[in-house]
Request: fold
Amino acid sequence: MQKELNPLKAPAGTRIALMGNEAIARGAIESGTYVITGYPGTPSSEVLMTIHEFGKGLDLYAEWAVNERVAFEIALGAAIGGARALVTMKAPGANVASDPILSAAYSGVDGGLVLLIADDPGPITTQTEQDSRWFAELSKLPMLTPSNPQEAKDFVIVAHELSEKLKLPVILRTTTRVNHTVAPVVTGDIRPPCKYVNFVRDPPRYVRAGMAWNRERHAWLLGQLSKVEEELAGFRVNRVEGSGTRCVVAEGVGYEYVIEGLERLKLRDKVKVIKLGQIYPLPKEFLRHALNSCEKVLVVEELDPYLEGKIKELAYESGLKLKIVGKMEGLLPEVGELGVNPVVDALKRFLNLSLQVETSISPLAAPPRPPPLCPSCPHRNTYLGLIFGILKAGYRREEVPIFGDIGCYALSVNPPLNAIWTEHSMGASIGMAMGLKLSGFKGPVVATIGDSTFFHAGLPALAEAIHKRVDMLVLILDNEVVAMTGHQSTLTWGRTEMGRPTKPLKIEEIVRGMGADNVAIVNPYDIDKLVATVKEYLRKPGVNVIIARAPCALHAARLYGVQKRYTVIPEKCKECMACIKITGCPALYIGEDHKVHIMIEDCLGCGLCAKYCPFDAIVEVKSNE
Reply:
């Protein structure tokens, strides 16, 4: 991004390099969106983060919500009053919000409501390769998908217009490469924010308890969906490029790969490319016309062969005699991200070109690099304290299941900690630990969950465990921030990123108020106390909660600087590697002299390595020394 330009306030006609998520944020401003909310989740997080960084002084509400369901309900409440709203989440977040999303299709909206769902092919940072195009069919909501940052910005505006015309929420579905690609974007005019207009009592529309009303609204919804293609015709979200009887249908980032592939093959103008920006409902009239002169069709899409199946159905019902190929025939993979090289290979096979023609760029080989916990991360201490506490309590490690949850502490699954046994979905650790115990498991069980995840989805499960008097240890890792997705605010903050004053919530007060049998707050850097508390609580009946509280070391270093660091005295190092084998801290490395060294610029001064050095070879130094 060009430092001298504010991407949200730059005048119309400015050409600026923007990440896809930054472009979506700009699109929200251009479209007059007044309420913007969501829950952090890669690859969607930077939309709100961009507004927090560059949106000071703008007339809008832009804040994180406690989870995706609440975020959507906030946006829905704004939109039924006539305001324009945007809500952002990653693909699994749509699962969390699915209940109100599906009901919102029946009630509809009056102001524009755009739901950004960011899929993560790969997956790169997500627990599943969920294809949210199916979610559009499930929810019966229109879906658009952009191919690049320019379209990402423009489609926000289109989606708002469509939403208000049809009085329906509209899904904007992206994938990781669109969210995180940086490309030139030309800005447009900024519309004043669209705020509350009116909200009229209308039970048949807004009350889902009436079954006859629900049938009426279902029929209304189907009628609105039938208008989508016509309403979008003027926006050219679907278009045809090139000509020929060999045709390629592409959507999302797959379109960009197709264009680059055809240019490598020097066939850019000799193949008809049918680009779809409208995913649901399928633009049947457009496709019938576009496919009419085609003899063979290649469908390029990420994740499932969703469009391939739909287009085959359309061709059959329309009497089009086409050979349609794609993932179902094995020309493209169904697992992992697409890229230019596999698309080029598919184009060669589709066009009967020699596979020996060198057109692909070989990817650089790189060693595997599993992500580690950051240097001085308090979660490293917490899991070490938990493991040593289990041992001190007289159990073997394999006797005590440790249920994990979603967050950077899930990296404790890697060596040398090898801590958590499961990591399933937001808030699942407590419920799954409870289920194992109820199944007849005789030993202790432990659920570990982060502070943001606890607020997001852990509260109901903890209430259930307390109510049913299940014996278990719940370890809440409170680093005072949503760390893994880029250090966003939690409900414990007294002021949001936009400067809005809040009433901070205290986890210990909530847990005690729910009736937990024993509650302790421990600084994980005091690892001996943590070990002792784990040992004690594992043996006590009831739901016992330990809150391991210390700020995220990386976030604290950015805010306050680093006060101390550690270094190794080479003469004292006996090459036992205890510091590395126990902590796994990425600031430690083995030098050419076979001794341990510390990358001083990475060390944040926790001193854990020094604690476990049996020869006192690791010593503290002041950060300015």
